[in-house]
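Researcher: I'd like a candidate sequence for this fold, 651 residues long. If you have to choose between options at a position, lean toward the conservative one.
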């Protein structure tokens, strides 16, 4: 553990380093001299910045309660531009004779406001959409107006999906069908012939190349979707037999998401380029090579091939991709295709953050009266009565005999005697109060050990874990299941930090619990700049009467619709902010989160009938003189207000 400077010498620079904000923030996030997290809307190049606490104040003034999902439109705009500009630069530098076309895979964030913003910001670049179902196709059609932007239909397609896509093509959309299963091709041919439309056909290749990581099964030979090379050649023959080989325009693959190693990316591009060249040789016109998603986000800021990071920059990704395509295709004098990528995660992750307040703290120790800030001094050794159980007397001896040399031994003994007291309590030999005295003594010992162990040159593993046991629990006003499903489901690391008070030293170590009553509703792995992952977060002591706000960053990808209604906590409030060049900002949109009634209706309750039912119960209470009619009025009002209210904790 890095040694912390003393209270007086702590500065925002120390906070910046501790939380790694400049490593994972991609230039969009930093800390102001006042100790607030600030947003730099267009990355490092722009001096304008806006503090998150000031946005929180603005939200509160508008009656928007925590938790809030805050979206910064400029960041999305900037991410889309960077992607296109990086590809343009690589294409120009390398002399590639084809274009870049980006598409946004809607599944990564299907929210209407997000897709709309992507269509808007992407329009200078002909940024298109990728869809995987009929509903997503409608979502794309509702926002996309650009005839040069690609509309890629992936996913398993039924007749209706195909017809809708063919109609979209007739309306002028550049709508491609990507064949994911051999059987789909026959259906596409049949529907297209019947409609008299020449479809734009692509195939998804199952590559032998694989990437390591959580999502690698979506690529590689074992992936459920895609055609093997044999099946791709069969597709060529089928199309030729129907006199439709001229419709074969695109080759697609998707290696999986968050591909953190550039070597995996390069390997896949090379293999796909070989297949592409082979298809051209077979007589397919082609013209588009679609490399799928996979462009990773450096969530922990380590720039490594660690799962939550990536060992390449955006420029390196673009250069490597373009160069690999060129190298392979030039060997056979194959014309350079338009390169498509389907980057979802990298496009939207930075754009959203979850903000929430801390409602309560649970600490092992009792708070000291004097509040000196020195850990250890506050430990009160409980008064041990003369007739205390022997195990308790032994605990006291352990405490008195504690030295730097015998920490491990004391630790083992403390646990042994504590367990003995608990056993005796179970057998009725120790009273509740006696047990409590022993437990308190035990924690005094553990805290002494925790403090002393820092002086050891090498900390044994058992003792290192004490920090976690002693960590506070900070209760945050949010639901992991609703807002950060990947943190729970696959242990995804997101940057988490306080968004203010960063000029103060964070004196507490905490894990975060949400307000669901589920023991999995917690965040207990955090970015550690030195060691990758740590189990507690450095936080500040709460101040009376003052809210303490934390932010979870880089949550724009995949988190919004994967979330569920655990404990019937619903969608959070959403606020979209646009920052102007002069540093002023506007609340562009706000979306109220689910009300209690909304959530109940999702799970088939009818809020009106709930009120009716309660009214009957209240009337009966009046009849039996439990309550007065005026109280009935007041109680019913409270129930009705409650149904209209937010599902989260309201102050
Ligand atoms: C999920 C998915 C993507 C998005 O991948 P990212 O790694 O988020 O960019 C792209 N294409 C297809 C076919 C997908 O299934």
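Model: Candidate sequence:
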């Amino acid at each position: 553990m890095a040694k912390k400077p003393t209270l007086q010498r702590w500065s925002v620079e120390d906070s910046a380093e501790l939380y790694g904000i400049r490593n994972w923030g991609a230039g969009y996030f930093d800390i102001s001299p006042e100790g607030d997290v600030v947003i730099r809307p267009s990355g490092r190049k722009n001096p304008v910045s806006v503090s998150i606490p000031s946005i929180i104040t603005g939200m509160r003034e508008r009656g928007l309660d925590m938790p809030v999902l805050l979206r910064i439109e400029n960041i999305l705009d900037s991410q889309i531009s960077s992607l296109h500009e990086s590809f343009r630069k690589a294409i120009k530098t390398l002399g590639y004779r084809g274009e870049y076309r980006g598409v946004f895979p809607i599944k990564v964030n299907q929210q209407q406001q997000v897709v709309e913003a992507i269509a808007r910001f992407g329009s200078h670049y002909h940024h298109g959409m990728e869809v995987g179902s009929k509903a997503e196709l409608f979502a794309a059609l509702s926002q996309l107006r650009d005839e040069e932007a690609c509309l890629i239909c992936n996913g398993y397609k039924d007749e209706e999906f195909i017809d809708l896509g063919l109609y979209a093509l007739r309306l002028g959309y550049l709508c491609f069908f990507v064949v994911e299963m051999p059987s789909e091709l026959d259906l596409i041919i049949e529907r297209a012939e019947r409609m008299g439309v020449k479809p734009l056909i692509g195939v998804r290749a199952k590559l032998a190349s694989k990437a390591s990581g959580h999502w690698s099964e979506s690529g590689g030979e074992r992936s459920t979707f895609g055609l093997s090379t044999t099946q791709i050649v069969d597709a060529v023959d089928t199309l030729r037999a129907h006199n439709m080989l001229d419709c074969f325009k695109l080759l697609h693959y998707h290696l999986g998401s968050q591909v953190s190693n550039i070597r995996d990316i390069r390997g896949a591009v090379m293999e796909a380029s070989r297949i592409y060249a082979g298809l051209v040789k077979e007589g397919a016109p082609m013209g588009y090579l679609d490399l799928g998603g996979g462009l990773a986000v450096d969530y922990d800021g380590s720039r490594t091939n660690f799962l939550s990071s990536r060992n390449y920059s955006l420029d390196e990704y673009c250069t490597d991709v373009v160069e690999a395509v060129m190298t392979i295709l030039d060997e056979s004098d194959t014309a350079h295709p338009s390169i498509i990528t389907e980057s979802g995660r990298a496009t939207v992750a930075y754009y959203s953050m979850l903000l929430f307040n801390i409602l309560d703290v649970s600490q092992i120790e009792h708070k000291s009266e004097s509040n000196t800030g020195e850990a250890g001094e506050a430990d009160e050794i409980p008064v041990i009565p003369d007739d205390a159980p022997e195990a308790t007397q032994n605990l006291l001896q352990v405490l008195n005999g504690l030295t730097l040399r015998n920490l491990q031994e004391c630790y083992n003994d403390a646990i042994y005697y504590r367990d003995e007291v608990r056993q005796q309590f179970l057998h009725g030999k120790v009273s509740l109060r006696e047990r409590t005295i022993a437990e308190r003594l035990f924690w005094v010992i553990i805290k002494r050990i925790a403090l002393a162990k820092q002086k050891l040159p090498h900390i044994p593993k058992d003792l290192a874990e004490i920090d976690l046991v002693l960590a506070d629990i900070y209760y945050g006003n949010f639901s992991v299941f609703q807002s950060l499903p990947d943190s729970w489901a696959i242990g995804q690391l997101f940057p988490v930090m306080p968004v203010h008070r960063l000029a103060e030293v964070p004196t507490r170590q905490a894990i975060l619990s949400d307000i669901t009553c589920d023991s999995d509703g917690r965040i207990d792995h955090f970015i550690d700049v030195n060691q990758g992952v740590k189990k507690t977060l450095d936080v500040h002591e709460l101040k009376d009467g003052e809210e303490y706000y934390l932010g979870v960053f880089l949550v724009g990808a995949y988190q919004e619709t994967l979330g569920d209604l655990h404990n019937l906590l619903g969608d959070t409030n959403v606020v979209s902010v646009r920052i102007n060049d002069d540093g002023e900002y506007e609340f562009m949109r706000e979306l109220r989160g689910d009300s209690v009634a909304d959530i109940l209706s999702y799970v088939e309750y009818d809020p009106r009938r709930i009120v009716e039912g309660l009214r009957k119960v209240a009337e009966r209470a009046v009849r039996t003189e439990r309550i007065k009619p005026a109280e009935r009025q007041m109680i019913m009002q409270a129930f009705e207000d409650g149904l209209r209210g937010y599902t989260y904790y309201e102050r």
